[in-house]
Design a protein that fits this description.
The chain is α+β, with helices and mostly antiparallel strands. It has five helices and seven strands; from the N terminus they run ββαβββββαααα.
Length: 214
């Protein structure tokens, strides 16, 4: 987070999901407020902020609850951009830096902007022996997905982007958090944890309960 002026008016995209650092996020954009935002971010090669909805919906509807969202989100950088037709954008973003919302403003056309500050990146931490099964299971899953893509064609998108940091607590925990079905509130709490080791320990417990890592 080095482009400090952006942090005083960071555009926000409240979504019914949680974006983790290093995670991939495909989006179809058709609301005017976000078409304009994405166009400006792409032109300036600037990020926008993804925050998890706590009430309201992703698309504005008459009579719907007002939007509210979590106080910690993740910067998203656009890495793929398509405009298949007028009024529609298809993009893929990658999560970078976590941030904490300090102040927000709802602009007249419905776009939220915020003053935010950086949340420290996860410390690089080697996976301890008793948790290495989580990385082994993730490697098997990646191998399966890559084989499927080779069989079905390169147009098949993988939900996990390279580089694969399979010896890093935070990276492995984040990828499992994206892949394992869980309540949105739990996913948000896991993303907010300061300790990547604790996040991976909790993920290991989830994998054990679901049998995914067997």
């Amino acid at each position: 987070m080095t482009t400090l002026p952006l942090l005083h008016s960071l555009p926000l995209f409240p979504l019914g999901t949680v974006l983790f650092p290093g995670g991939l996020l495909p989006l179809r954009i058709f609301e005017v407020r976000y078409l304009d935002m994405i166009g400006k971010c792409r032109k300036a090669d600037a990020p926008f902020g993804v925050v998890s909805l706590t009430s309201g919906s992703e698309v504005r509807k008459a009579g719907a609850d007002a939007e509210s969202f979590a106080a910690i989100g993740t910067l998203a950088m656009i890495r793929e951009f398509e405009s298949p037709q007028s009024g529609l954008l298809q993009i893929e973003c990658v999560g970078t830096q976590r941030f904490r919302v300090r102040d927000t403003e709802l602009q007249k056309h419905g776009l939220w902007v915020a003053e935010v500050e950086a949340v420290a990146d996860d410390v690089a931490l080697e996976i301890p022996d008793d948790l290495k099964h989580t990385a082994t299971a993730l490697q098997r899953l990646i191998d399966t997905l890559e084989e499927r893509r080779r069989e079905q064609g390169e147009s098949v998108r993988l939900p996990i982007g390279m580089p694969y940091l399979l010896d890093d607590c935070g990276w492995v925990a984040n990828r499992w958090c994206e892949l394992v079905p869980m309540q949105l509130e739990l996913k948000q709490r896991l993303m907010e944890l300061d300790s990547p080791l604790m996040r991976l320990e909790l993920v290991s417990d989830l994998l054990a309960r679901t049998g995914i890592a067997q």
